[in-house]
Hints:
Elements: E1 2-6, H1 12-24, H2 34-42, E2 52-57, E3 61-69, E4 82-89, H3 95-112, E5 117-120, E6 142-143, H4 147-155, E7 159-170, H5 180-188, E8 189-194, H6 201-207, E9 211-220, E10 226-235, E11 246-249, H7 263-281, E12 286-291, H8 296-305, E13 308-319, H9 320-325
Parallel strand pairs: 4-5, 11-12
Antiparallel strand pairs: 1-2, 2-3, 3-4, 5-13, 6-13, 7-12, 7-13, 8-9, 9-10, 10-11
Helix pairs in contact: 3-4, 5-7, 7-8
Amino acid sequence: MRSIRSFLNLDTPDLAKIWHLHHRAYGSKSDCTVVAWDHAVLAKPFFRNEQLLMAEDSSEGMVGFAHWGKNPEAQCVGKDVGILHRLCVRPGEDEDAIASELIEASLQAMKLEGHDRCVGIGAFDDSIFYIGVADGDGYLGVHSSDARLLRWMQAGGFRPEQATECWELALSNFKPPMDRTQISVHRNSIVSRILGHGHGGWWQSVVFGHCDLSTYQLVSKTKPMVELRLTIWTPEVFVPGVESWIARMSLSAVGSDLSNDDPRIEQWIYLISECLRLLQTERKQMVQVVIDPNIPQHVQILQRLGFKTKHHGMVMSRELSQFEDQ
């Protein structure tokens, strides 16, 4: 017999075990250790116990969990949109039934809190949990290799909303692109680092509180003003189970309205190149970024810098008004 209940502090080892079993089932090396759970999830001031649902079997113990909520500072999906942050179930004959019960309980809870719509897994650039832990930092959505999770989401009424791709660059192979245009940008620009947690304010500080967060800016020499800003984060080395040797960044600030010959494209390439060179001096080994592959400017920039695709995913969504009618 199974029941769904809210998270208790004693459940953390079970969360780590379920995470491990779920991700190994589709070949992922991602692990969320007990310490990683504490720093990357449970210690966040916006974490709520009742939003982390545990599926408990009377004879087997914990068999799955679903984590739901919202991002009150969301820029893209909307501040009132519910988010299914994570859904993990240990492999077994009854895995579909367990996942269905967890999804139903999560959607019902979101509906009671007034949400009319839900996205998952995570919310792309508006994701706030599992940063530095999950494949693609929780930005990837449903991993293309996780057929079980895709099946559960589709059965729960979720439909594809946004394709995602995780691109990766080995810093040992990185050489800055250097042509006449890049030389011109170099002569007319200065790249500097903003110390501390940059310009993102208190919300960015708490979301990335377990990470080393750096913001870099490109300033024009001709008109002394900040042209571009780029934030890069790396999980702190004191958190076991996270890949602290991999740096992450977001291209959300790169406008999708830029034309292919817009000079800002070359500025972005130069700014990112300078950041990658600095990461090399800090002995970082890899850089990852999750993008929407339907934004050609992002693809263009990453290809110029030598990035290669690593993972594919999909953020999915469903209307909760339909859930009420079922």
